[in-house]
Target: Glycosyl transferase family 1
Amino acid sequence: MVLKGVSPAKVLVVSTSPDAVNHNATIRDALRGGFEDVLGAPAVRASPLELAEDAVAEFGPSLVVALGSVAVDAADLRALARGVRRAGARLAFWLHDDPYEFDYAPRAEDLADHVFTNDRWALPHYRHSSVSHLPLAACRRTHDRPVRPMAQRALDLFFCGAAFPNRIALLERAQASLAARRVEVRGAGWPASLPFAENTRLTPSGMADRASAARLTLAIGRDLDIANRRFRLPASTPGPRVFEAALAGAPQLCFAAGLEILDYFEEGREILLFDDVLEIDDAIARSHREPAAFEAMAERARARALDAHTYAHRARTILAVMAA
Model:
């Protein structure tokens, strides 16, 4: 891959906020691994934001990918951009909290050669002249698991994520119908009203382990805006957990908040959709009646993730766009 006449490409992946407040530093490492798969390890480095200027000067990249949220006031993104310009490199921002923080987007637009947004519906609302939609993905090194037989899965239902209000409300409505099931919810902020929920953060690898041990893994999007007043954009693109759980060999039951998910996985063959909480227990019961069908669904979803939705695939897209 050649970037604007620079060969071979050297890529530096940096965070857009200091690690002390960055809850998604593992995505930086996953993207670094994706670039390593494409370019080889010597051509790729990663750095927290607080060390990024030194990393740019020492490594001399041709491309710097700034990944994350730009809502943190303490993040000196202008200093990062100045360092990138001094090195003669190009700067791409990959914002992974659209549309929930879309009002902060001008911070990236003012500095970037190109902006990648995780959300398709946010794309036409940018004013930057060079913007692309790029969903998040799964990390082959962290999330990939062989598909377990249903008989070896200790859980009926698993969910991992922060306790946003829409997720709490959905699981509270489902609670009575799930009373006889083996349910595990992990994350932060879950109320005591949900006895199967535990306020424990799992590592990405731990999440994959638990998802691979469940007959069904729930996918429920986020519904909590931080700074989305200008256009009040609804989220369109599924979050990374859908890709991660698929790679972990987990049959998934995805809340049908929108249909863009069908661009990534086929309903009925690779995932299941639901829009009523009573369908959750029905799907669990079906997994007990038809274990082979659910194993096959998980195999197809894992194959789809390996074929199209790892960070190596996203790295190739970034390189292609930035070389154009």
Notes: The longest strand covers residues 63-68. Residues 11-137+311-323 form a domain with the Rossmann fold fold (CATH 3.40.50.10350).
